[in-house]
Design goal:
Order of helices and strands: HHHHHHHHHHHH
Helix content: 55-70%
Distance between the termini: 33 Å
Oligomer: single chain
Largest sheet: none
Shape: elongated
Number of helices: 12
């Protein structure tokens, strides 16, 4: 969804401690700073901004379990049609696996036989020559120098802190990292049409219609 929120503002709203200007005077819902879409947008910026890259890897290390990875890579395919591959997202998938979130593993696209440089090859090679190779990432075919990433959990909100103000994230804690969590978040924000919900969050109509109906029934019998 197009809006006037900057990337820094979106990153802050999904739990990254980053400076940003005051939010514009807009009526926002959580899908204006959707978790998965914000990660995708930031991944493209991170290829030229190592600060954002470190913040993203820090975020994934803490919150990777609460990403709907199917949704993330479904949305990424749409972006890749006009922005090209996001090799940083592959790096983030490796970091998620190293942090213990194994559901990301099937989305890693490289291997030892097909290595990838997530940033400019010339820069990576010279840095590896100076710093040495990050062996953990190299096992997955992602070549980066040892000191490229500055992963600090203090750079992101804790699970409890983020759940306090981000309804989309909080629903992942309640319903699991699933389309159901996002569909109910949309209902809670006042979306009254399953078709609009499906289009907004990127799922198909069937789960949107079914969960909308189930939620309506549950509300009536309270």
């Amino acid at each position: 969804m197009e809006n006037n929120i900057s990337l820094n503002q979106k990153l802050s709203l999904i739990g990254i401690r980053i400076g940003f200007s005051e939010l514009p005077n807009l009526k926002l819902n959580c899908f204006d700073y959707d978790l998965e879409e914000t990660l995708i947008l930031a991944s493209y910026e991170a290829s030229n901004d190592f600060r954002i890259l470190s913040l993203l890897t820090s975020w994934v290390s803490v919150h990777g379990e609460y990403v709907i990875v199917e949704k993330l890579f479904k949305k990424l395919k749409e972006y890749e049609k006009y922005r090209g591959p996001s090799l940083i997202m592959n790096l983030l998938s490796v970091q998620a696996v190293l942090a213990g979130f194994l559901k990301w593993k099937k989305w890693i696209t490289s291997s030892e036989k097909k290595t990838q440089y997530p940033i400019k090859k010339e820069l990576i090679e010279s840095s590896i020559e100076y710093q040495g190779l990050n062996e953990e990432f190299a096992k997955f075919g992602v070549l980066i120098p040892k000191k490229l990433l500055r992963i600090r959990e203090l750079d992101v909100y804790s699970i409890e802190e983020l759940a306090k103000f981000n309804i989309q994230y909080r629903n992942r804690l309640i319903y699991g990292s699933s389309w159901r969590a996002d569909i109910i978040a949309a209902i809670e924000f006042g979306f009254k049409n399953p078709s609009v919900i499906a289009k907004t969050i990127g799922c198909s109509y069937e789960p949107s219609h079914r969960i909308f109906r189930e939620y309506s029934i549950a509300q009536r019998v309270k």
